[in-house]
Structure formats: structure tokens, C-alpha cells
Design a protein that fits this description.
Order of helices and strands: EHHEEEHEHEEH
Radius of gyration: 18 Å
Distance between the termini: 51 Å
Largest sheet: 7 strands, mixed
């Protein structure tokens, strides 16, 4: 994957690509583009690019963008912990089914972990038939009921303690 890379999205250079990704993702989730608000989407993309420069990224293959990632790597929760959120994980149709979705998702999770978040969340609409099995295979779990925003999925990112550290910690606890 040396020819594949993530780079910040510069909306002044490729504004129509970001909009096209969002439009296609809407169509996949809703079955058509009815209700897709181009102006509202432009405002969202501009806000995300301005407020979270690493939160709006394009996936490039050589000199062409082939995907888009939108995320908030760290958001404060009520309990004081940090959680990341993935707003969009998108590949253009001809690049789907090649393992790049898993790779792009792992890149998102790496950024979320690096920001200090202990979990990640995302939503999908059940009408997006490919989304649920894809995310469940990657270890996400459903949280709560489906509502007008779709199904919330979460993934815990707290690393498990290696067995040797656990054994040492357990031995030390038993010795006292």
C-alpha cells in the first residue's frame, strides 16, 4: 500500500470531491439523494476542516483522491474521559472490496487512540446493508436502539494488559 496515503483535505483544491463523497454516502444510506442538502454539507465540511484540520482527510492513490475520512479524534465525555467519533468512512466505488475499508478504519482508530481516546463511536443507517456486517466483523458492538440518526456502534480502545504483566501484577498482589 505504498501508493496509498492519507492527507489532510484541502477544500479549496478539491471541494467537489468532498461533496461527491458525502452525496454518494447519503445515497447508499438512504437509497437516493432525496433530502441531501448540498449547502448544509458544504457548511459541515468547511466547519470540520477549520475546527479539526486532522479530522477531514482524503485517501490518495498516487495523484487521485479515492476516499474520505471524517472524524473527531477526541471529544470530552461527561465522565471526563475522551472518546473519538467517525463521521464518515468512504471509498469511491471502484476501490471497495479490496481491503481498503479495513485499512482506512484502522487509520481512523490509530488517530483516535493517539489522541488519548479510550473508545470510538459511529452511526450507520440500517438501510446501508454493507455497514453492519463490516463493522461487526471489525469488533464494533451495537449500543442502544436504532433511532432517526441510525444505529450507534462503539468500540473500546483500551488495550488489554499483556499476559506477562497481568501475571506479574497478580503475583505481586498475592504476595502482599
Amino acid at each position: 500500500m505504498t501508493s496509498i496515503r492519507l492527507k489532510p483535505a484541502y477544500l479549496d483544491l478539491y471541494p467537489e470531491f468532498a461533496l461527491a463523497c458525502r452525496r454518494d454516502a447519503w445515497c447508499i444510506s438512504h437509497g437516493n439523494t432525496t433530502g441531501f442538502d448540498e449547502q448544509q454539507t458544504r457548511v459541515w465540511l468547511d466547519t470540520l476542516a477549520r475546527e479539526q484540520p486532522q479530522g477531514l482527510l482524503y485517501l490518495w492513490h498516487h495523484d487521485s483522491p479515492i476516499g474520505q475520512l471524517e472524524l473527531a479524534p477526541a471529544m470530552a465525555r461527561m465522565d471526563g474521559s475522551l472518546g473519538g467519533y467517525i463521521y464518515l468512512l468512504y471509498l469511491v466505488p471502484q476501490w471497495r472490496g479490496r481491503g481498503l475499508g479495513r485499512w482506512l478504519l484502522e487509520q481512523a482508530l490509530q488517530q483516535i487512540r493517539a489522541a488519548g481516546s479510550t473508545s470510538a463511536g459511529l452511526r450507520y443507517l440500517p438501510t446501508n446493508l454493507a455497514a453492519e456486517p463490516f463493522y461487526l466483523r471489525q469488533g464494533w458492538r451495537k449500543e442502544g436502539p436504532v433511532d432517526e440518526q441510525g444505529q450507534l456502534l462503539v468500540k473500546d480502545l483500551i488495550p488489554l494488559m499483556p499476559a506477562t504483566l497481568y501475571a506479574n501484577a497478580n503475583a505481586n498482589a498475592n504476595a502482599t
